[in-house]
Amino acid sequence: MPDDHYVDYSQLLSQLLNDQFELNDTVISFLYHLFPGELFVKAMSLLDSNDMFIYVFDKAHAQCEHSESTETEPDGSGKEAREPQDAEADADANNFTNSFSSSHTDNTDLVSLLYKAPETVLYRLVVKPETAQGPPICVDLDHWFCSCEEYGSQFQQNFIRDTSENREPSIYSRAVTELNASASSNSDRFAQLPLQHNVQRYFRHELVLCPHLLAFAILLQTSSQVLTYFTQKNATVYLITVQHLDEWLKLHLNMIQ
Ligand SMILES: [Zn+2]
Predict the structure, then answer these.
(1) For ligand 1, a single-atom ion, which residues have Cβ within 5 Å?
(2) DSSP for 1-28, written as a single string
(3) 137 CA to middle of ligand 1, Å?
(4) pLDDT at residue 213 tops 50
(5) 163 alpha carbon to ligand 1 midpoint, in Å?
(6) In this prediction, what percent of the chain has a pLDDT beyond 70?
(7) Ligand 1 midpoint to CA 96 (Å)
(8) Residues 6+ away with beta carbon under 8 Å from 231
């Protein structure tokens, strides 16, 4: 569906932080109104929940053999430095991430790479299951996909069951906005899909957007300062490097169980 993409969501969301590298309350109250319902509030509480994981496969140092597992905090503070009330969350997180070894490589470089050349990084986005029995929630920003029920029902409703007379003929054209090839390139990265034939494409997030997608888009489609804030200063989002191929594969097995 050819259209213009007017609002630069990346730019707006990157103003979450002020010059003192703290959350900007004025901007937050504005952003609250930018998204429907409680979506923005839910995304912000997810970012504060210790339930979000960014797993990065370290291809450069990848090994195949199994080794002792270790777990390190993305902020480098170690578990001893965490508040006591985080103990339960840590226990849950450890249960979910059990046996994944991670190394505390230079996260500053990793954050920079995730912004400057994300196509060179193999990474997976996971939210801890809401219940012990539930499956983890998997998010794929490149395809604007989330495995949660909310995403599934919105997709069904807006793209599959759409019976309006003037609907687009294919699900793709209903779901994706392609920028006019003659238009100047757009700097907005929010809900942006990989280039196809040099055409900039955006998923129509106004039709399908859940808190998980919004929260990961805030982390990875705004500015590297925002990612640094949540993974290092606030330290409520885990940025974990996986160096062993068997553990990387185990991560995927856990996702589909
Ligand atoms: Zn979701």
Answers:
(1) 146, 148, 151, 210, 212
(2) -B------HHHHHHTTB-TTSSB-HHHH
(3) 7
(4) yes
(5) 25
(6) 76
(7) 18
(8) 54, 74, 75, 107, 111, 219, 237, 238, 239
